[in-house]
Amino acid sequence: MRYITDRKRAVGLGSAKTGAQEFWKVRLTSAGLFVLVPLFVFTFGPMLGEPHDEVIAYFARPFPAIVAALTIVVGFKHFRDGAQVMIEDYVHGTTETLAIIAVTIISYGAMATGLFAIARIAL
Amino acid sequence: MADVNRGKRPLSPHLQIYRPQLTSITSILTRITGNALLLGALLMVWWFLAAASGPEYFATVDGIVTSFIGDLIMLGSLWALWYHALAGWRHMIWDSVWMMDIDSAEKLGWAVIGGSVILTVLTVIII
Prior knowledge:
heterodimer; A: 123 residues; mainly alpha; 78% helix; 0% strand; B: 127 residues; 3 helical TM bundles of succinate and fumarate reductases; 4 helices; 76% helix
């Protein structure tokens, strides 16, 4: 009889080795979005279709600007990580690599664009 | 190496084998809504960029986003957003090993579908 726990015996024997971090990152950003998304929907939503000067004045205020910026950062990070999981499920090989690169470019590109726009409106 | 015998290896039963169930459909919808939200998110970023650029460009983009098709996309995105959020809660619940029995899982499925519709209608009324 060996004095070792069942868990200790099992650690490292799975085929995946890594991956818990990816799982945790998506859960972490989703927890953040539970708070951010309702705040964003009810600040961004009413501004759709409003006159330009009103939109500018509204998003120059700290709360709507910070909520929008945070939602864009956390949202696109969550999308990038989630979309990678989907890609890894359905495509393989070179297509998989290229798809992950494309999703990463779109996500961070959109994130930077959104942040730039909000900074320009707010400052 | 790992791929040598890929074609001949037996596959475990997958989507084509199983009859669709509430739990499987709601799970697939979580993935579809999550990825489809990219469209609404990109429209939102475009709208912010237009607002930052100036009144004329903003009028054009705001016109597109609030056009009939734009409204349709935004309404769809709103539902997808609430659906994906509620499905996220469901995952958190399951990750905590709660409500894993079939009855509870089915109830959660209906809660996600019903809740997302109710939240969408409420949001449209409030906004």
